[in-house]
Amino acid sequence: MKRKQPQGGGPAGGVPNAVLGAVGLAAFLALGEVVPRLGIVKERYFPPTSRIAGALVDEIGERAFWTDLGDTLTGWALGLAIAVGAGIVAGVTVSVVPYLREATASTIEFLRPIPSVALIPLAVLLYGTELRSVLLLVVYASFWQVLVQVMYGVRDVDPVAEETARSYGLGAWARVRHVLWPTALPYVMTGVRLAASVALILTVTAELVIGAPGLGARIAVAQTSQAVPEMYALIVVTGLLGLLINVGARSVERHALAWHQSVRGEVAV
Which of 73, 79, 80 is nearest to 194 (CA)? Predict the structure, then answer.
């Protein structure tokens, strides 16, 4: 017997989560307005929310802002696409080819913890401030998110289902399609969602440090020119981008896993 879990309710099925979230956001914005005006922090370093909002409106009205936003989204999307494709192919290959997992385990564990920002000097040396420098950092950071999740997913395949597929004469591609992929897909989608957020972080970081065109470089220019409200407004934009990317990734995940128990919201009782 199965039953539906309650959807969209608050902690005790009372106030909806959306209302609680709106209240929390309003309180945060009010705090940001009041704290600098009371002199707790200097407005020079942390302007009130109203000034940041005004600077955000001004930024949105500039054509250069949209150009920089497009550059950031381009670096993010290209880097994420490359990382997801490479991570899925490498993860499945390493997991299904005999002895390859053991042969590459130490190499993966050595490379994976290296911070992507440590590769900034290499990226600048190879590509300067071009888009390829951004892609190098984004792909490196995002690739591991997908690879590790794919490997976990393949490892989770039921041996009985695998042997049953073999006994029915299914070829390697058929087993991947009908046995391995449905089991690994929830892990893959988790890896993609994590990689999407990491890709945005590295895109903005690369632009900020390297000076590649995009929102990160625009933030650096605002900071050096002492345009503090504009700097915070651009930071807000990057935060909104992260929120939209996370919401979009979760929406894609729910659509791709509509058949999965965790998405259907059903529990056995």
Answer: 80
